[in-house]
Every structure is written in structure tokens, then in C-alpha cells.
Amino acid sequence: AYTAEQALAAIGGPAVPSLVQSLSTGDPQVLKWVSIALGDIGYDAWKPASRILAESPSASTRAAAAKALGGTGYADAVKPLLDAAQDPSPPVRMAVASALVQLGDARATPTLVALLQDRDAAVRAATMDRLLEWYDPPTLPQLAGLLDASDVDVRRRSAILLAEHVGGQEELQAAVASATTAGEAHSVPQRMMNDIAEWTDALVAGTDAQAQGNLQRLADGDDPGPRYAAVVGMSTVARRTAVQGNRDWAVGELGKRLKAKDPELQTTAAVAVARARVPAVLEAAVKDAQVAQDVRQESIKALGLLGTNSSVPVLIPLCEAGGAGAALASAAIGNIGRRLSEESEGRSPEALEAANTLIKLARSARDPILKAELGLSIAQIGEAAVTPAIDFLKGAEKSERPFAAAILGKLGNVAVDPYLLRARNEVRGVEGQEELSEWFAVTLWVTGDKMARDYCQALPDEEKPSPEKIGQAQAELEKLLDVM
């Protein structure tokens, strides 16, 4: 399906009817590549894709149409996507969220925030992932409004998003404080709020150690309003104080409440931890079997957003153990590496270490799905993962080279110039390196980059990548895309 649909995309507008007809097959691989091809065609595809999104009886076909609309980059594709946000199928709503972020139109903000509150947990999770890439300023007050939502999961996700977008700035403190007093269930008398603020400031400044007991007493109480406000105060101490003893105390208290039997108190602590940006608490929650499973899973995801290189050793055993936690841990390591790579323009030693860690785990993984998830996480790191991935390809057994090529293919054009071109030229014509030289050519081809493909097409016939090896690498690349 890959080669045929990509060839149709190259034809452009005249290929749209054939591509639209292909959407009726229901084959997942065909749908995937047809949606990419329609998106690549752009303007000529948006009207047919909009019609399919609105009218097709097949949920998988509607989802493919939504993905295609996101790929068109066309502003008029926003409205049909907004209309489809109420689609009865969760996969369609997930595709809508992804497509709206891809288009980047500010009109999508209210719909994306609404999807963060979707009745389906998978839709909420997918929307949260997409909102991490969304920087429309009106999003922040709308997310702050969700901090007092009735749903535990919605509150936790909105808090983590705010922590990621706003960081440790005072806007987030104000957002949490306003949400604390917004609802009757979390009402706090003004005098008590003043006391909590005074105790918090004293602990931040290190002027009154007795304030620890005052906050702790409220945090252990039965009244949800003061309890919430006291835990938020602890998060402020953890984030702002330079007094190590007070910081250690606050971090420890937040960690205890992640293990509370009361789900409401767990959520309060999760909000506070996200706000305080204290990876150590999240790391402790991940390792502690007493912490509820859903809180541990959210802590793993939050480490992907807030964690540092020191979080990676905590996540490695989860990858090695397999199961549901392995996929989350793999993605978290990839996200940590991506952030470190972006902050350093691909030169972070810590991001390189994260990539090498994932490659080591992928080489030993026996579960093919986990292996694909690890490969995708490596590619998500970005430029810092290119050199480790090239080294992986160089040292890989023959059976592993298609997988290594797929990782570099997923990295795309960032891997091409100068990295892959230089690596191939280093082994080109070297006796005994003929097969590796061909695999570098294969890898250049599967990146899909125009410069790389022009380079491959200009090679002498005896150096061109073989269709068989290209097929092997593309098959591995499809496995990576299947777990996205």
C-alpha cells in the first residue's frame, strides 16, 4: 500500500478519486497511507475528505479522513474537523484532536479543551499529548478552569498541562488558587486562606519551622477545601524555598499523599506535584507499589513532561519488565530526551544518553510491540538520537538493520544532512563495507526526504538500494507508525 499510495500522492489532484475510493477498503495499512497521500495533495483533497468525514458509515474511514484534513494544511479544513469533534467513535475524536493541532488554527482551542474532558479516557490521553504542542495563549485560562472539574482525571491532566506550559511562574499559582475557591466543595474561609498563605511564605523564607505542623494538620484533615489549599501550599514550598530542610519536608509530604487511600487526596497531591515540578516525588511514586496504579501511570506520563535525565534510571526497569507500564515508560524516556535535545539544539549529552538507553532496551526487547514502541520513542528524541541510531545501524546484526533503518527513517530529514550522507560516504567503496553502504542508502530512501531520494536516484545502478531491503525497512517503519 505504501508505494502505490505515495505514487498517487505524487500525481496530485487527478489521483484524488482513486485515493477516496481506496478509503472504502477498510484495510488499516491502506487507510494509513491514503490519509497521508490525501494530506500531501492538499487543497484538491480537502473537500472530498470533508465529505467522507461527515458521511461515511465507517469509523476507521472517518478517522482516516480526519487525518488527511490535518495533513492538507488548508484553513478551510478546520470547520469540518470542529464539526466532527462530537463523532460517536473515540478513534475519530482522537484523529480530530491530532488534525486540529496539526493545522494550528486558534479556532480549535475551545474544542481541544473540550476533548480533554471527553467521556473516553483514550481520547483524553490523546488530546493531552496534542495539547503539549499547542501554544495558543487563551488555552491557559481555559485549562485553569478545569482544575476544579468534577472528574479526577481531567483535573490531573489540566494541572500537568499547565505545569508544562507555564512552568513555575506565578500565573499557575494564581490559577490553582482561583480554582481552589471556585466551587462549593473546595471553599476555604478567607481567614484560613490568609493563614495558609502566611505559613507558606514563612516556610519559603525559612522564618517559622512551626508552620510545617500547621500545614500538615490541614492537609490531614477531613475538609476537602482546606486540605486542597494546604497541599497546594506545600507545593509552593517545594518549588520556591531555598531552605533545604523545608523543601525536603514539602517533597516528602507530597509523596505521602500520592499514596493516600482517598482518590480525591491523591489527585490533589498529583496536581500539587505537577505544579511544583518536583520530579523526585513522581519518581518515588513510580517505584512505590503502594501508590494506586492509575496514579503511578499518570506519574510515569508526567515524568515525560517534567522529568530530568535522573528520571531515566527509574523508568528503565519498567521498560525491562514489559506490560502496560513499559510502553508508558518508553514514551516518557523519549519525551525527556526530546525536551533535552530541543533545549540544546541536539547537542545535549543527557539526550544522547536517553537515546542510547532506549536503543539498548530495544535491542534486548522480545515483545515486538514493545520493540516498536521503543523504536518510536528513540525517533521522538529528534536530532540528538541521530548519531546513536547511526551507530546502532553500523553495529547491528543483519536481522536488526531493517529496524535500525526504520528508526532513522522515522527521524526523517533531520537525519539526512549531514549525518546519513556523511556516514554513507565514509563507507562508500570501502572493501567489506558494501552491505552497510547499501543499508545507508536504504535508510536515506525511507526518510522520504527529497534530497535523500535524489541522492539515491543519482547513484550508479550497482549502488542503488535494493527494492527488497527498502521493503524490509518500510515494513519495520510501518510497525513504528502502528504504535503511534
From TrEMBL:
<dbReference type="InterPro" id="IPR011989">
    <property type="entry name" value="ARM-like"/>
</dbReference>
<protein>
    <submittedName>
        <fullName>HEAT repeat domain-containing protein</fullName>
    </submittedName>
</protein>
<dbReference type="InterPro" id="IPR004155">
    <property type="entry name" value="PBS_lyase_HEAT"/>
</dbReference>
<dbReference type="Pfam" id="PF13646">
    <property type="entry name" value="HEAT_2"/>
</dbReference>
<dbReference type="GO" id="GO:0016491">
    <property type="term" value="F:oxidoreductase activity"/>
</dbReference>
<dbReference type="InterPro" id="IPR016024">
    <property type="entry name" value="ARM-type_fold"/>
</dbReference>
